[in-house]
Amino acid sequence: MPCGSPPDRPPRSGTRERLCVRAAGALRGRVRPPGSPEDGHAALVLGALAIGETAIRGMPSGEAVARTARACRALGARVTEGDASWTVAGTGVGGLSEPTMPLVIDDAALAPILGACASHPIDVTIAPRAGSADDPVGAGLREALAAMGARLAVGADGGGLNVRGAREAIPIAREGAAGDAATARAVLVAGLNAPGRTTVVAPAAGLGALPDLMARLGARIHRVPHGAHGRSLALDGQPELVGVPLALPADPACTAALVLAALVVPGSDVVLDGLAPDGPTDAFLAALRTLGADIAEEAGDPAGLRAVRVRAGAPGAGGVLAADAVAALGPTLPALALAAASSAGESRLAGACAPDRPDAPRISALAAGLAAMGIAHRAVGDDLVLSGGARPPAAEDIVVPAAGDPVLAVALAAFGASLPRGLAIAEPGPIDAALPDLERLLRAVGAELEETARWAS
């Protein structure tokens, strides 16, 4: 798919949602973004597979996490929510119980829940939810778990997903496409209860904190690069996971939106706590520094997470980011591209337009958004080149499309935070599910995120 071509999607009619971020003045304050929903769901499931208590800080809020907690209780764990953390008293690897009722979970929790259930000799039904696909399991995930000994079937008349776990899970080497992160997450969790070594290939930035959380609880994982955009992870099965305190690193997409808003709103001075020392957030901050952004390290916390101070001001003269640095950005790439577009000189993001990127549809939608705003950019081979000097358009009749991608939508909205009326983003997608705490964090530093409806002609 060419970098400048929007992804195919069905036409929409009737009501259309708009999203905008407005800042009444300079953004100021100190906030700790919570972990991503994917990391929160994974942490609960891993806690259920550990012996003893696992205390989890930095959990995202929302009903989706509560549903996953109820599912873990149904599988035999004890889960309690405290003021600052969640506590899970687990069953140990191999100790999950068969639930007496269908599990109700969100799509973001499906991979770890499926991986855990598929590797235990239990029968589980995952109930359908409004808005979820009739069959939420892709072919790659279904085939991988079947190879490990599980059976997955969609119930009659959309009656949910029936999972029959393996009597003894089989370790596999899943050398599939690097873009299939959900399959890699599920197989890694399933591999915890499989004897021998389970190997998966995943996007370089696609697994979130899952491998680190597993290692913190006692799993042995070996990681090596794989191709241009992926890495190979080998897990030694049937470890004794032991509950320890876990601190989820801040959601990279949420962090990137806050950083971008602080950069573009004049006079802003914001400190962000709880940032991962590696992964997409680290790659994002390193890329911004390469472009000349004013980002300083602050004292971190005992868990090894970082804190940074972001002061307003467009990045400097632009620059060139190598393909490996761009691949490491993951969900922060849209915010980085918008920051680069506002720099004084030209920036080149090597490999950003490569058609085999796991996030190629998102990059195409980003290019469509840049075009809607009149921001000069072009694809040169597989590279995205941004001319620099861009500012959010002040015209009130400009609506920027986000193609239903909430990560792209919040980056675009943050880019327009310096405008008195914000920047109108169409089709922002499920913001509350993907970034449940972003609105609270924006309000904490002096901005507002609004989602309204308008009639589409």
Characterization of this structure:
This protein is of the alpha+beta class. Helix content is 30%, strand content 24%. It has helices at residues 37-48, 63-74, 107-118, 139-147, 181-191, 210-216, 252-264, 279-291, 323-327, 333-341, 360-372, 406-415, 431-434, 438-445, and strands spanning 15-23, 28-31, 53-57, 78-81, 85-89, 123-126, 151-154, 161-164, 173-174, 197-203, 220-226, 230-236, 246-247, 269-275, 295-298, 306-311, 320-321, 347-349, 377-380, 383-386, 399-401, 424-426, 447-455. A hairpin with a 2-residue loop joins β19 and β20 (383-386).
Topology:
Blueprint: E1 15-23, E2 28-31, H1 37-48, E3 53-57, H2 63-74, E4 78-81, E5 85-89, H3 107-118, E6 123-126, H4 139-147, E7 151-154, E8 161-164, E9 173-174, H5 181-191, E10 197-203, H6 210-216, E11 220-226, E12 230-236, E13 246-247, H7 252-264, E14 269-275, H8 279-291, E15 295-298, E16 306-311, E17 320-321, H9 323-327, H10 333-341, E18 347-349, H11 360-372, E19 377-380, E20 383-386, E21 399-401, H12 406-415, E22 424-426, H13 431-434, H14 438-445, E23 447-455
Parallel strand pairs: 2-14, 3-13, 9-10, 17-18, 21-22
Antiparallel strand pairs: 1-22, 1-23, 3-5, 4-5, 6-8, 7-8, 10-12, 11-12, 14-16, 15-16, 18-20, 19-20
